[in-house]
Structure formats: structure tokens, C-alpha cells
Design goal:
3-stranded antiparallel sheet; 18 strands; 50% helix; 12 helices; disordered N terminus; Glycosyltransferase; mainly alpha
């Protein structure tokens, strides 16, 4: 389905596949070649979203490595510069050489250079390894498909709990599992298995994605408020009080995340490309509509971060990834339904992001804004990882949708 951007001389053509690809290339061009660690392999992960400086050279996060591989793989799939494929291959080599735990199996979470700094085994990180390798395989990186099979084997053998149709979340380096269960790692495993299916055509991966989606986005919400909750006990019953006294926890905040509602909207519609099940669109629409109704800032624009079970805002910050996932979800809904209201949401989210989140000087997005849409400085110099994966992913999935793929 084609879509024409309404006349807006002060705005880019947000609905143009060509412009979206160029924006993705601009993001990649900020990181490349400065992100390439020629000495130790892999990438540098910590660039300031304010002035572009590299402020940490040694911390190598599994998720950061994988997101770079994904980003550059997408660049190649979008027929970007020749260096995209080389940069993706560079990351695949480091992922399989440095992040693989030769002593206990699986992938290590954090390296100091090439030494293990944190060997915890997170399903979240392994999901990104699968996503990265699947994308690299589709892009044509030599050996990626073989490595993909190995990574999927780890997820199957270590994290997958067949009785629940879901994955455990966290283990020690030697595979002692914690009782906490969460939707976030499973959401990204669903994403990864969809990518693995598209890379290999193996229906088992699609089945795995469908089982996760059915549990997290349909069965569990139906037992609660109809939205995707974050935290669960070991038996996959809702844990409504987890981190209730630490609501701003960076990795596991309490409350409903607007960004995860719209991210599931996107994933359900990606799954619907391959599975003709009416509930997928129905739930995708409901999650998007309820998230935007609860979390959109009518006065200043943007989606707030979290809200409680009564729909009251808990955290009023505005993360870049929430807007990126929101605009991708809106475009996929518009493409699927033909309803103009979702194109309106797409334009609204892009316009807000362009005006507030995009650092025009660097072509990357600020990680986080406060409620008044000012960049939050405290996150400039942290060991956390930002590769603009959500931006690149959003551009890619929207081009696939409106480009007719």
C-alpha cells in the first residue's frame, strides 16, 4: 500500500520509503567507522547523544554488539553503502569469538575489552544474538546462518520452558536460574524467532514466535487488565507488586510500559504476515489504541513512559525507543487496516520525534527527554548502550510495509 505524506513544507517526507532508508543510513553513518574497534574487535558502544564523543572504550555489551550487527545488516538489506555488510560481518566475528562462553556455553553479558566482566546469562541478550545472526544471514554475511542455528540451540536447550510456551529470563554464568519471569525477554525472543523464520524458512521458529505471542499478548492480558504486564512469578502468574517500591528501575520498572504495548502491536502485525489469525490484528489495534489514549501528552506531545493499572501516569519521561516503536506500529496498523487515523498517529509521532528527539547535528536520536521535552543529561555518560537500533528497526519495518513487502 502506498501512502502520501500530507503537504508539510517544514517536514521531511515521513511516509517515503526512500527518505526512511536515507534516515537509517544517516544514523549508521554517525556510528561508522568510529564505532569499529580495530584493535580488539567488535564495536565501541558508548557515544554521547549530545556531542557524539566516545566516553567509554572498554565495556562491550552483548546487546550492544548484537544491535550493531542488526543495524548494519539492515543497512545492507536496504541497499546501503558497501561498508554496511563489512561492518555487520565484523560484529558477527566478535560475537562468536569473544562473547561465546567457552567454559559454560551461551553468550556472556558484558566484556571488559575481551575479558568477562559479567557472565550472567540473560535470555534478553540471547534473543538479540538470534536477531543479529538472522539479520546478518539475510544480508549475506558468510557463516551467519550456521551461527544462527547454534544460537537458537542455546535458547531451546537452556531458556525455553515448553510447558508454558515461554522462556526463563535469567541465570548465573553456570546456568542456575532465578525465579523471576518477565515479558520483555520473551517479547524480544518472539522478535528474534520471527527473524529466524524469515532467514531460514523453518516453521519451527514461526511456531515458537506464535506461542510466545499467544501467551504474552493474549492469554496473560485476558487474565489481567487487557494489557501486557511486565513481571511474573516462576509459574507465570502476574506479579503485580514487583518493583512497586522501585518504580523507576531502569531495567524492570513497575507499571505498564506504553512502549511495550506498541512494540507488541508491531510484532503481532509482523506475525500476521505469516499467520492468518484474526486475533492478531484485533489485539494489535487494542494495545495501540489503549496505550496512546493513556500515555500521549496532549499538551507537549510524546508518549510518557509508564502508567498504572488505573491509567495514571507513573513516569513522565519520554524515551526515544517508545516513539520509534510507536511510529512503526502506527504505520503497520495503517497499512493493514487502511484506516487514516493510524496514518495520523504515524505523522504525529514522527513530527514530535523530528522536532524534539532527533539531534539534527548528529543524525541520531536523544535517548531520553523529560516531561517538557528537554534532553536528560544524566544519561549522557553511563555504561548503558545506545546504538539507535529502535530507530533503524522502525525505518526498516515501515519501508517493508509501505514498500509492499
Amino acid at each position: 500500500m502506498s501512502a502520501d505524506t500530507p503537504d508539510a513544507p517544514d517536514r521531511p517526507a515521513f511516509r517515503s520509503p526512500e527518505w526512511l532508508a536515507e534516515h537509517a543510513f544517516d544514523v549508521l553513518s554517525f556510528y561508522y567507522p568510529d564505532c569499529i574497534d580495530e584493535e580488539r574487535g567488535g564495536y565501541y558502544h558508548q557515544f554521547s547523544d549530545r556531542d557524539g564523543t566516545l566516553y567509554e572504550r572498554d565495556a562491550k555489551h552483548l546487546v550492544g554488539t548484537c544491535r550493531y550487527v542488526y543495524n548494519f545488516g539492515v543497512g545492507a538489506l536496504l541497499d546501503g553503502p558497501d561498508w554496511c555488510l563489512d561492518a555487520a560481518a565484523h560484529g558477527v566475528e566478535f560475537l562468536m569469538d569473544a562473547h561465546v562462553d567457552d567454559d559454560y556455553g551461551g553468550f556472556t553479558w558484558l566484556l571488559d575489552g575481551r575479558e568477562v566482566a559479567d557472565g550472567t546469562k540473560y535470555c534478553y541478550g540471547h534473543a538479540f544474538a538470534v536477531l543479529a545472526l538472522a539479520t546478518a544471514a539475510r544480508a549475506g554475511v558468510d557463516g551467519a546462518e550456521s551461527h544462527l542455528a547454534d544460537a537458537i540451540d542455546v535458547v531451546d536447550e537452556r531458556f525455553w520452558e515448553d510447558d508454558h510456551g515461554l522462556c526463563a529470563v535469567e541465570a548465573t554464568r553456570d546456568w542456575e536460574f532465578a525465579p523471576y519471569r518477565g515479558q520483555n525477554a520473551n517479547m524480544h525472543t518472539c522478535e528474534a524467532m520471527l527473524a529466524a523464520y524469515e532467514a531460514t524458512g523453518d516453521e519451527a521458529h514461526l511456531d515458537r514466535a506464535a506461542r510466545i505471542a499467544d501467551a504474552i499478548a493474549r492469554r496473560f492480558p485476558d487474565r489481567g487488565d487487557g494489557l501486557v504486564w511486565e513481571h511474573y512469578r516462576e509459574d507465570w502468574t502476574h506479579d503485580w507488586s514487583y518493583n512497586v517500591d522501585d518504580r523507576a528501575n531502569f531495567f524492570r520498572p513497575w507499571g505498564y510500559l506504553a512502549g511495550h504495548q506498541v512494540e507488541w502491536t508491531k510484532l503481532l502485525l509482523l506475525l500476521a504476515r505469516h499467520r492468518d489469525e484474526p486475533w492478531l490484528l484485533d489485539r494489535a489495534r487494542d494495545l495501540f489504541d489503549r496505550a496512546t489514549a493513556a500515555a500521549w501528552d496532549d499538551e507537549r506531545g510524546g508518549l510518557y513512559y509508564t502508567f498504572d493499572r488505573d491509567g495514571e501516569i507513573v513516569m513522565d519521561e519520554k524515551f526515544y525507543w517508545v516513539m520509534a516503536e510507536g511510529l512503526a506500529a502506527a504505520a503497520l496498523l495503517a497499512d493493514r487496516t487502511g484506516e487514516g487515523t493510524y496514518w495520523d498517529w504515524y505523522d504525529r509521532l514522527w513530527s514530535y520525534s523530528w522536532d524534539t528527539l532527533v539531534n539534527r547535528d548528529l543524525s541520531i536520536w536523544y535517548r531520553l527527554l523529560d516531561a517538557d521535552n528537554e534532553p536528560v543529561a544524566e544519561l549522557d555518560k553511563t555504561p548503558r548502550v545506545k546504538t539507535d537500533y529502535h530507530t533503524v528497526s522502525a525505518c526498516y519495518e515501515v519501508t517493508r510495509a509501505i514498500g509492499g513487502e
